């Protein structure tokens, strides 16, 4: 489970998701 901060930008979220699930 990845916890995303409320202030995270969509681009940052997608980048994190790509790094977690390549």
TrEMBL record:
Protein name (database record): Uncharacterized protein
């Amino acid at each position: 489970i990845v916890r995303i901060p409320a202030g995270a930008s969509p681009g940052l979220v997608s980048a994190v998701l790509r790094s977690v699930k390549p």
